[in-house]
TrEMBL record:
UniProt protein name: Ni/Fe-hydrogenase, B-type cytochrome subunit
Gene Ontology cellular-component terms listed: plasma membrane
Gene that specifies this protein: cybH
Compartment(s) of residence: Cell membrane
UniProt xrefs under InterPro entries: Cyt_b561_bac/Ni-Hgenase, Di-haem_cyt_TM, Hydrogenase_cytochrome, Ni-dep_Hydgase_cyt-B
Family, as annotated: Belongs to the HupC/HyaC/HydC family.
Signal peptide positions (record): none
Single GO biological process annotation from the record: respiratory electron transport chain
GO molecular function: electron transfer activity; heme binding; iron ion binding
């Protein structure tokens, strides 16, 4: 007979800890806020200003301020998740996904599953090969947009954190061939993140609907389920 058991019987009772879920939602909210404010910063299409002697009380300045706030929030979440994967004890279940990441047979079976022509393969970690490589590329884009974003930030704010990041900013600027190219690559990384985020949402919804294992609910409740034969 088949029965459901908490996946935590080998993941310690909860697949996603509270810290893990918090960083996910901080990162998710930050991404959408950064996209919205970034589009306006790149192309200010509304003119609005308060009557004030201060040179910062206009819409572009407000949105740039929120862009920076959400930018540092996302940096914190990305760094937390990176340390989680490499150094946290709970991260070993994600690291176990490396065993299937280079398995062509499992990857092809996973493609068949998404095409509704094959069963879901048994995977050794919490991510199947397609998920693992999608998330890996997402973090490449995260660090790309973070580095280019910090370079742009340090070119405007020369004190405090701006001064701290200025040597890094100049290295990034030199690497990309100038500040204009840093800005272009910042936009390219943004569009890459948008594409991967939509793929992520699709895969999460698909697995929740067809997998029926609470995979999408886990990011809210922390609990995922698997079927086991007895």
């Amino acid at each position: 007979m088949k029965f459901l058991k908490p996946m935590g019987e080998y993941l310690g009772g909860i697949e996603f800890s509270a810290g893990y879920r918090w960083q996910h939602w901080i990162r998710a909210i930050s991404i959408f806020a950064l996209i919205a404010t970034g589009f306006y910063i790149a192309n200010p299409f509304i003119t609005y200003a308060n009557v004030s002697p201060e040179p910062t009380r206009f819409l572009q300045a407000y949105l740039r301020e929120w862009h920076i706030i959400f930018g540092f929030a996302m940096i914190g979440a990305v760094l937390y998740k990176t340390f989680f994967f490499f150094f946290f004890r709970e991260g070993k279940y994600e690291r176990a996904s490396l065993k299937d990441a280079f398995n062509i047979k499992v990857a092809l079976q996973q493609v068949g599953y998404y095409l509704l022509i094959a069963k879901h393969p048994h995977t050794k970690g919490v991510y199947n090969p397609l998920q693992f490589w999608a998330y890996s590329m997402l973090y490449v884009f995260f660090y790309g947009i973070i580095l280019t974003g910090l370079a742009l930030y340090a070119e405007v704010y020369h004190n405090g954190l701006g001064a701290f990041f200025y040597p890094l900013a100049k290295s990034v600027e030199t690497f990309f061939g100038g500040l204009a190219y840093v800005r272009i690559w910042h936009h390219i990384f943004m569009w890459a993140i948008i594409v991967v985020v939509f793929i992520h949402i699709y895969m999460a919804v698909y697995n929740a609907v067809f997998g029926k294992n609470g995979g999408m609910d886990a990011i809210f409740s922390g609990m995922k389920w698997e079927k086991e034969d007895h």
